[in-house]
Amino acid sequence: MRRIIGIGETVLDVVFHNDQPQAAVPGGSTFNALVSLGRTVGVQYPQVPITMITQVGDDHIGDMVMHFMQQNHIDTTHVVRHKDTQTHVSMAFLDKNNDAQYEFYKDHAHAHLEQETLDSFAFRQDDIVVFGSFFAVNPVIHAVVSSLLRRAHEAGAILYYDINFRPSHIQDLPEVMDSILENCRMSDIVRGSAEDFLYLFGTTDALTVYEQHIRPLCPNFIFTNGAEAIETFSPGIHCLFRPLRCKTVSTIGAGDNFNAGIVYSLVRDGVHKNGTTKPVTIGADKWTRFVRIARRFSAAVCRSIYNYVDEDFISTIANVKQQ
After folding, report:
1. Whole-angstrom distance, CA of residue 171 vs CA of residue 103
2. 241 phi, psi to nearest 5 deg
3. Taking the mean position of all CA atoms in its chain, how far away is CA 240?
4. Of 168, 166, 222, which Cα lies nearest the Cα of 191?
């Protein structure tokens, strides 16, 4: 029985518009994707359990986050909580285009995961592991995260890595660059944005990024650039998907939910590995289906102030033909 396993941070997102608070909702890059997967895979494919490996504060906000995960079909058995710790907070300020500028209130230096507890976590072939952002390379917890990813890779799990490198961590790049590359090396699918690769490699040309930096490490690559064209790559395959515009209320969680749509498609299409060491094979037809679904997830989130698809979203995609 395959599972979806998220490895990432949790925060409370406080959303502002015209400098006035509009909403306060649990968030985090991987967290947002898993909530949307709980509301889709968790409903349509209940035989595929969803679990989150993360850290949550021992405070009222942490209680809210834990309850929210449980409400959305996410197992919280492996959520770490330490006495007298506080849940991280993110302030998101929406501009005139409803894009968010962030201010983070996080203590990355005291991030903690339980090595002893997580050592007993057994990955299985064809589990789908979703991870990314600074949580995946934070030097304070990277030994634990790297051990989890290595064991998942060796077990034959499908690893989906969203680099999601924010400008607030530019000063950390020399220290974490090797970790980013190692994460790519263990992954089956890597997604990154034009902004990510401008910081990492000094280029926003998707083909250059793939051929020179990603392909030697990971065969399957998704290049996004906000609302602009999307490019996907596999060995011998390059697909270009034209820009798709939609009216937005907030772009918070748009990329996270694009990731959710790809993972939903992996489950829906029954994508499996050919053995524990061979990466997933994705052809042009699958990329077309996957991107179409992923864009639906992303667009649905952009039409609301929340970070995830609503509970009714599953009815709009459950019967989409696999053509």
Report:
1. 16
2. -115, 120
3. 22
4. 222
